[in-house]
Amino acid sequence: MKKTVFFGALTVAGLAAGAAAAATLDDVKERGKLNCGVSTGLVGFAYPDDAGEWKGFDVGVCRAVAAAVLGDPSAVEFVPTTGKTRFTALASGEIDMLARNTTWTFTRDVDLKFEFVGVNYYDGQGFLVPKELGVSSAKELDGATVCIQTGTTTELNLADYFRVNNISYEPVPIETNAEAQQQYLAGACDVFTTDASGLAATRAAFEDPSAHVVLPEIVSKEPLGPLVRHGDNAWGDIVRWSLNALIVAEELGVTSANIDEMLGGTNNPEINRLLGTEGTLGEMLGLEADWAVKALKAGGNYAELFETNIGENTPIGLARGLNAQWTDGGLLYTPPFR
Questions:
Q1: Total-model pTM
Q2: Same domain, 106 and 196
Q3: 280, HSE (Cβ side, Cα atoms, 13 Å)
Q4: Which of 93, 150, 291, 313 could pair with 287 in a Cys bridge, judged by C-beta atoms 3.0 to 4.6 Å apart?
Q5: Rounded to whole angstroms, how far apart are CA atoms 315 and 72?
Q6: Percent of the chain clearing pLDDT 90 (strictly above)
Q7: How far apart are CA 221 and CA 217, in angstroms?
Q8: Is residue 280 part of a domain?
Q9: What share of the chain is helix, strand, coil (3-state, %, to 5)?
């Protein structure tokens, strides 16, 4: 008797979970566009160009998901969010996913009830200072004024680092990267601290980047990646495997230039499963067989997105480093597509 009741409870819970899981996908399809939360403007990662079109590395993830789900990489409503507003926007349903240089942490995953679907950039917190300040290490910043974005892990890491090293600082709270840049250049703070990738993007936007130095210390682990709400497993799977498709495509040598040729069939079963010419991976996600093809055509594979937006040949000038494929000494690695 008890077993029957327990099974019934599980069945009801499972049905309820299944109904909730389909909600976001249904909403996106009915709306005809993906609402994607991004930063308020960080060159290379997420920013509107002079024509108002959003571009950048994080923007590319949003467009890949929109292409996979709706078949149109332009079917995205970009919602600018700050460190303070991003989680409220996601929890309230204002946005369907957040792709905004956001660090995966225990409390955000567990306490705030979000689900990080992967890492699209392995980062760490650093410090930007004017060259004329004459310091070569963060340990020489005792008594410095520091521009810091509120509501971020950066704020907490800063306090930890200065405490461990027994030095003091005066925080200058800011909410957006644009405000940080303005305050820093105006001399309202001696130092600007955020993820090292953000510092590179900020420095590249200065009139004279050479007058500013990123100090050598990296004081934290900042795995950045897209996230969705808890309880919507089907939607989480779609965002997760859209990101994974970009990453594994680079590993497998699938690019926006050769993808049409590979659609004719290859000798590699994993490539064929990725592109939907074999197997039923798209059906499992509730999408078309060529969902990954559409995602990859939106902006290319991971390497193409990286090199176009933030790579060494861009003003941001970031090396792959930890963000190289696992086969090339980096941390990028996806589960098998099978």
A1: 0.88
A2: no
A3: 3
A4: 291
A5: 29
A6: 88
A7: 12
A8: yes
A9: 45, 15, 40
The residue out of 193, 220, 247 marking a domain boundary is: 220
* Same-domain pairing of 177 and 229: no
Per residue in 115-169, pLDDT (tens digit) is 999 999 999 999 999 999 999 999 999 999 999 988 888 989 999 999 999 999 9
Taking CA atoms, 332 is separated from 229, 248, 325, in Å, by 24, 9, 5
Angle, nearest 10°, between helix axes 302-309 and 233-252?
80
> What CATH number is given to the structural domain containing 55?
3.40.190.10
Give the DSSP per-residue string, 41-92: -BTTTBEE-TTS-EESHHHHHHHHHHHHHHS-TT-EEEEE--TTTHHHHHHT
Question: Looking at the structure, do residues 45 and 172 belong to the same domain, yes or no?
Answer: no
Token pair, residue 63, equals 């467009």
Cα 314 from chain centroid?
A: 19
Tally of domains in the chain: 2
Who's near 53: CB < 8 A, 6+ residues apart?
none
CB atoms within 10 A of CB 189: 22
Clarify whether residues 231 and 106 are in a common domain: yes
The pLDDT of residue 15 is 35
Number of other residues whose CB lies within 10 A of the CB of residue 247: 21
Does residue 15 lie within any of the structural domains? no
Question: Which pair of tokens denotes residue 170?
Answer: 């005066």
What's the rounded Cα separation, in Å, for the pair 338 and 325? 19
If asked whether residues 35 and 89 sit together in one domain, one would say: yes
The token pair at 59 is: 């923007």
